[in-house]
Amino acid sequence: MTPYRVLLYEEMHKAGTDLLAEKAEIIMARSLDEEVLIEQVKDIDAIIIRANGKITARLMEAAPRLKVIGRHGVGVDAIDLAAAKARGIVVCNTPDANVESVAEQAVAFMLTLSKQILRADTALRGGRWNVRYEYIGQELFRRTLGLVGMGRIGLRVAEICHYGFQMPVLYYDVVQYPQAEDKLGAEKVTLDALLRRADYISLHAPLLPSTKQMIGREQFSIMKKGAVLINTARGPILDEAALIEALKSGHLGGAGLDVYEVEPTPADNPLLQFENVVLSPHMAAHTDDALKAMSMIAADVLRVLDGNEPLCRVA
User: Fold this and answer.
1) Which residues pair with 145 in a beta bridge?
2) Cis preceding-peptide flag for 264 (omega within 30 of 0)
């Protein structure tokens, strides 16, 4: 008989589930609807949540045995941290696991948009060889990169762009990063200064009350004409209506988005109609390498259940 019962909101890499299975019974969520989850958590010792669903105070109240919540990934905006703290429930995540994967996705968006790869691919499949004279791209080389948030992923994007394309790096953050300044020549600036100067703007801020819709109409209006915006962080950081306006007006040169205000994004979202917008369904961290590493949240969950401190505690 296994001593622990762990609820998984969604399936994860076999490496993590195999580790859990050594000490715990794995229970899969029947649905991410709160009412269904409340029925499942009554005898649950731990929950592992991925990108979907929420863990509310009400759900925690229904789980008297709950000791630890593991976030398969980084952002913990779907977890009521205050409620967890009040109940003595440990929250841990995997802050380093998806750094390379998400950073590469952000740079891939930049390259795809700048070289007009998707437009060219679609045209060629339609027999339009002569678009080679119409779709004129631009190089990333020595264009200015602006990072809104210089955390682990932002820093990795900065490294790739600085060393790979000799891009000057600007960053806006509440924290100073002297190592990035010394190593990469990164310049800490105000948000307005970054938006006015950057050719490529990549968002890497966490979703907090202070960052919700931090990029709206006013911010788009002061961006360089033709600037490219990348968001692999959280959808609500952007005002999508304002983004659509900036694209329609031609002021914004393009956008690469992995995250959206509402997920899944509706099939009638106007963003799907723009040729200069590249989209993916919240999958920037979905490489086998990153998924395997994120599944190792299982180790931290088991560590807490065994009475030890997790390696990556959030609350």
Assistant:
1) 169, 200
2) yes
Closest CA to 90 of 300, 235, 288, 243: 300
* Residue ranges in the chain assigned as alpha helix (H): 14-21, 34-40, 57-61, 81-86, 99-114, 117-125, 152-165, 178-184, 191-197, 217-222, 240-249, 288-295, 297-305
pTM, whole model, 2 decimals?
A: 0.92
Half-sphere exposure of 156 (CA within 13 A, CB side): 15
**Rounded average pLDDT per 10-residue block, the chain, 315 residues:** 88 97 96 97 97 96 98 95 97 96 98 97 97 96 98 97 98 97 98 98 96 98 98 97 98 98 96 98 96 96 96 93
Cα separation, 19 vs 3, whole angstroms:
14
- Residue with tokens 């960052």, as numbered in its chain: 211
To the nearest 10°, report the CA torsion of 159, 162, 163, 166.
Answer: 170
Identify the DSSP state of 78.
T
Question: Cα 258–260–265 angle (5° rounding)?
Answer: 100
At 94, which amino acid appears? T
Stated as kind and residue range, the H or E segment containing 147 is strand 145-148
Domains of the chain: 4-97+288-305 (3.40.50.720), 99-279 (3.40.50.720)
Residues whose CB is less than 8 angstroms from the CB of residue 67 and which lie 6 or more positions away in sequence, other chains included: 45, 46, 89, 90, 304, 305
Q: Which amino acid is at 199?
A: D
- CA nearest 73: which of 288, 228, 285? 285
Active site residues: 234, 263, 282
